[in-house]
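Email to the structure team, subject: Pimeloyl-ACP methyl ester carboxylesterase model.

Hi all, the expression group asked for a predicted structure before they design truncation constructs. Nothing fancy, just the tokens so they can compare against earlier work. One-line instruction: predict Pimeloyl-ACP methyl ester carboxylesterase, return tokens.
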Amino acid sequence: MSYSPFRIDVPDAVLDDLRARLARTRFTDRSGDQPWQGGADPDYLRDLVSYWRDGFDWRAREAELNAYPHHLAVVGGRKLHFLHVRAVRPTGAPAPLPLILSHGWPSSFVEMLPLVDRLTDPARYGGDPFDAFDVVVPSLPGFAYSELPKEPLTRAVLARTLHELMTDVLGYRRYGAFGGDVGGVVTGWLGALYPEQVAGIHMIHPPFPASFDARPLSAAEQEYLDAEAAYDETDGGYSAIMGTRPDTLAAALVDSPVGLAAWLVDKYRDWSDNHGDLANSFDRDTLLTIITLYWATGTIGSSFRQYFDFDHNTPRPDITVPAAFTVSTEPSQANLPREIAERACTDIRHWSEPGRGGHFMPLEEPDLLAGEMRQFFTSLRP
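Reply from the structure team: attached below.
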């Protein structure tokens, strides 16, 4: 298969329309007494929209994104967008192990850029130049410039798509995989389905087994599952509506940039390790770059497809390739016992609970995460 260069180029008309919509925004009142008590805080949104309209420089951000080599390939008859960044390595260095880094929801390839820099050119960040990797960052199908498949968007379909990108399109015979959230689930599927080609997997959200029936739950496992269920009672509304009425929600968000921003920043605040202040984890330019990509591509609705198609998934086989975990610090991961992951993975070689870095760890703690990834994946080189 072949692939072609690609550049991000949002038309001026789209940006002009965006600014006009932002200027006409109607804001709601806060529901509770405290900021963020009822979701995206109106005062925060007012400030963010004001900056989005009058201070945010999309063209500058677009140029920064285009400094990376973007490509489009046709995989399974549909367009797939990806970055392919070669390792910077000295003469005599071993051939680099290629890595594929997969984002989740509500995210984009932008989340992985700090890791790209640190993994392809570690010497620039004080690391060993011999520990450089080739790095591939796809936009998952339905996100940004990647099209949805014609079939239901299951985890197996996502894994097959990314595997074909790495092997048939890019010609790699062996590679490592990293991901978080949905990208992490797909990473686990890559390891389960393609153990001959996948050297190892690294995730920030450890996988559940396909079934807990193999042995009784331990006290720690039961306690965690009960706590997760209780947390879902307060946080699960977003996935319930995206999984059952995605078109209804998407009709509102694809037409209102502020509605779109509210839907996304609510999760960036709830799931990151920001101690109550988004600015502790993300600058406004980064958040607005991700939000503007969703807006310009009109892909918020298609990003929901993985939720709507969830019931089409089949049980995942056991993961037998070497596995590493840098467990994120977020409510859904609190006190997650390693033994749950051991039910899913037969060869866990690294387990770390650093106590910092949330759902979007590549953006929040890139030095920490890149260091652990280099340590694990360099151990898998031939």
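The CA atoms of residues 184 and 203 lie 6 Å apart. The mean pLDDT is 96. Ping us if the truncation boundaries need rechecking.
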